[in-house]
Amino acid sequence: MTTISLKFDFANGHRLGPGKADLLAQVRAHGSIAAAGRAMGMSYRRAWLLVDQMNQMFVEPVVMTQLGGRGGGSAQLTPFGETVLNRYRALQAKTAAAVAADLAALEAALRAPEP
Question: Is this structure's pTM higher than 0.85?
């Protein structure tokens, strides 16, 4: 199955692509930056740095964190973070729909893999 990767390189130098969108989805699912990073096979530090980049890139934060105590910290998407993730997913769906016919034509013209 062919997949389409959608990445935005904004004029101010910031980037948003499938990895950051998936990280937001994992933070939403797990309620933790550390658990989101583990689910994606990345270190806590890498996940935290990506979340921090996203929080800095927009006028509003996308993830809100709460410092840990006995049970550890937590993280959740802000309402704006939900909007960012939903818009990104909508753009993915619209892009896939817009290129489906051309992509199918290209796939039909591919050589079969070597045995």
Answer: yes
